[in-house]
Amino acid sequence: MSLTLGIVLLVLAVALGGLLAVLRGWDSGAMPAIRTFAVVAAASIALLHLLPEALGELGWRALLPAAAGLLAPMVMERLIVGEDCARHAPRMALALGYAAVLVHQFGDGAAVSSLARAGLLSTPVVLALAAHTVPLAMVVSLLTREARAGADGVRVTCAALTGIALATVLGALTPRLIGQHRFESAEPWVLATIAGLLVHAVSHEAIASRAVTPASRAAEAAGGLLGLALGVLGIDEEAWVRRLPSGFSVAGLVLLAALVLLRSYGPRRAAQPRL
Known about the structure:
Elements: H1 3-22, H2 31-58, H3 63-81, H4 85-117, H5 123-147, H6 150-178, H7 180-203, H8 214-233, H9 246-265
């Protein structure tokens, strides 16, 4: 596959993610399921792909930038917005999460470029990257539409998605500009930080549920399990996480699925309206 086609497919994945997030309308009964799919998939990408890849390169040192990405925004929220944190923290999380998605897409563009130069770029690889791009674009679109309602929200969302697409293109140009070796040396540190930022960004959506009827709860749970499946099925065959004992892997997967179901069927905690 050519580099141009690979980048085009990733850009189309960004557009698809934005389209899926708003296709049925903001008050649609399908929104809890769509929202949960995007949130769980984004968290799965961070915890099952980005962080393990960084750990494979750096060892336990990767936990330091990951923890910084997770905890630093919390400290910033408290210091900057103080007692008004509950009201404004989601917007700050959106900004930080958006930055993480931009860097993630920049990295995907650079990865596609590197594989193309080595003659290893293939359709399955690009489709796997595109599959991860869709839910990340959905998260950005969903949260941006909430933060900025009305026609202005549509414009801001389109601008945000355009930024993600441009970051992908810029990433594809970077290895040629700074050199492949420099990029590869910094990549695991960046991946670990992105993982922490993404987890923080979706943490504001992790507990609150918008499903109120039995049907919407079932759809929400199904969306979450689908998002988890996307993360699990896309794990690289060569990743060290694949070499974990089968019993440990199954137990971890069951725990994650149980948390997804608990979000939909556990004690109700209604989502707070965004202001």
